[in-house]
C-alpha cells in the first residue's frame, strides 16, 4: 500500500440538513405541466415510499456479466499480480458503492420530494402512473457515492510521486463540478443554450492540469500522404478535450426520456469500457499504456456499479428520475475516462447511437426547426403503446422504423442497439489492428 507524502489538509465536509433550513420554493423540473407548482409547505407531498429496487434485473445483468469479467481478468490474460490486485480492490469498493447507493436512493427521494423536486412521467400521461410525483435528480446520490469511492481508492493505488495523482484529481474535480452544474440545472431549469455550454466550464480543471502528451498517432494509411507518423496538436488537443466533454455530456442528456434509457446506455458503455481496458492491459507490455487503461478501469467500475444501483429504481416503471445531475455526471465521467485513458476514438465508437441521435437532432438543436421542451413520442393510454413523432431523435426514429412499442420494449431495443454498437467497435478494432494504427 503506498503511503502519501502530500500534506493531509483535507477539510471536513459539512452536510447541510435540508429539512432544517426555512422552507423555500424550488423550481420544478417539470415544465410541461405547471399546475402542481408553488406548494407552500409540502403537506401534499406524496409521502409513500418509492417502489423497491428491481433486484431481478440486477441479478440477471450480474449473472450475465460477472463470469466473463472474471474470466478475462483471471484466466484469459496474464495480468500482473499487483495490477490485478488494484483492479479487484477497486471492484470490491465499487460493489460496496452499489449497496450504499441502493440504500441511499429511497432516503434521498424523500428529501427531494420534500423540496418539490419531482417530475411527472410523460410517457404514462392519462394513466394512474402519470399522476405520481416521481422524485427527480437522484443522480446526485450516484455522483456522491462515486466520488467517495474514487477518492478513497487513491489510498490503495497511487504512489506519492505519481503524476497520475494530479490528473486523477483534476478528473474528479471535473466530475464534481459537472455534477454541481447538473444539479443547478435540475433546480433552476437553465435555458437550453446555456445548458450546452455548462460542460465546457466543468472541464476546465482537467484542461488546466493536463500535462500529458498532446500528440496523436496518424493512422498508418495516411502516413505516406501526410509524411509524419505523430502529430503534435498543442493547444488544439485541449480544445478537442473540451469539445469531447461537451459532446459526451449533452449527447447522453438528449438520448433520454424513456424509463431506464439514461442509465441503461451508461451501463452498456461503461461495461464496454471495462472490457476494452482489461483487453488492452492484457495485450500490452508498455507500462505507461497499461497504466492509462488501469486508470480508466478505476473510474469505470464505480461508475458502472453505482449506475446499476440507480437502474434498479429507474428501470420501467421508474420509481425515480435521474435528472440532468446524472446525465451530465455520467457523460463527464466517460469523457475524462476517454481523455486520460487515451482512447477517445474508441469511446466515440461506443457512443455511436449518441452520435447518430446528435446528428439527427442537429436541425432542432441549431434552431433551424423549432425544438419543443420535450421531444418525446406520443403515448396512447388506451393501448399503452408509444408512437414516433416528427421530432428528430433516435427514440422517435426507432418507433417509426419498428412500429409502435411499449416503453419497456423500446428501451430494450435502444439498449440492444447500444450493445451492438459496442460489439461493432470491438470488431472494428480487431480487424483494423495493425493496419490502421
Ligand atoms: C432532454 C431532451 C428532451 C427530453 C428530455 C427527457 C433535447 C433537446 N432535450 O431535455 O427532448 O424530453 O431530455 O429526459 O433532446 N421524463 C419522463 N420519463 C423518463 C425520463 C424523463 O417522462 O423516463 C420527463 C420527466 O417529466 C422528467 C423530465 O423528463 O421530469 C426530465 O427532463 P430534463 O432532463 O429536464 O430534460 P432535458 O435534459 O432538458
Ligand atoms: Mg435531461
Automatic annotation (TrEMBL):
Enumerate the UniProt keywords alphabetically: Endoplasmic reticulum, Glycosyltransferase, Magnesium, Membrane, Metal-binding, Transferase, Transmembrane, Transmembrane helix
**What reaction is this protein's catalytic activity?**
a di-trans,poly-cis-dolichyl phosphate + UDP-N-acetyl-alpha-D-glucosamine = an N-acetyl-alpha-D-glucosaminyl-diphospho-di-trans,poly-cis-dolichol + UMP
CDD domains attached to this UniProt entry:
GT_GPT_euk
Q: What cofactor does its activity depend on?
A: Mg(2+)
| Cell compartment(s), UniProt | Endoplasmic reticulum membrane
* Pfam families named among the record's database cross-references: Glycos_transf_4
Stated membrane topology is: Multi-pass membrane protein
Q: In which pathway does it act?
A: Protein modification; protein glycosylation
Q: Which GO CC annotations does the UniProt entry carry? A: endoplasmic reticulum membrane
Using the UniProt record, name the top-level EC class of this enzyme in a single word.
transferase
Location of the region described as Disordered in the Swiss-Prot/TrEMBL record? 1-48
Please state which protein family the record places this protein in.
Belongs to the glycosyltransferase 4 family.
UniProt-recorded name of the protein: UDP-N-acetylglucosamine--dolichyl-phosphate N-acetylglucosaminephosphotransferase
This chain's source organism reads: Crotalaria pallida (Smooth rattlebox)
Q: Where is the organism placed in the taxonomic lineage, from the top?
A: Eukaryota, Viridiplantae, Streptophyta, Embryophyta, Tracheophyta
